[in-house]
TrEMBL record:
<keyword id="KW-0012">Acyltransferase</keyword>
<dbReference type="GO" id="GO:0016746">
    <property type="term" value="F:acyltransferase activity"/>
</dbReference>
<protein>
    <submittedName>
        <fullName>L-amino acid N-acyltransferase YncA</fullName>
    </submittedName>
</protein>
<keyword id="KW-0808">Transferase</keyword>
Length: 64
């Protein structure tokens, strides 16, 4: 098994489409979330805005 170095950075609005896509995979086929319907990109943008208003972080994994 190979390992890939990764870093974590603050998510940006342009990341939200891919974040929603990845999250949707786990909503549909996994048991790691309580969501029953995959959120849309618009819904993800709303959550991102809510976190920003509260000055809470939204992070994403990225390759180094």
């Amino acid at each position: 098994m190979s390992t890939q170095e990764a870093a974590v950075r603050a998510a940006a609005p342009e990341d939200l489409g891919r974040i929603a896509e990845i999250f949707s995979h786990y909503v549909i086929g996994g048991v790691t979330t309580f969501e029953e319907v995959p959120p849309t990109v618009a819904h993800r943008r709303q959550r991102f805005g809510d976190l920003a208003e509260r000055r809470l972080p939204c992070a994403k994994r990225c390759s180094r």
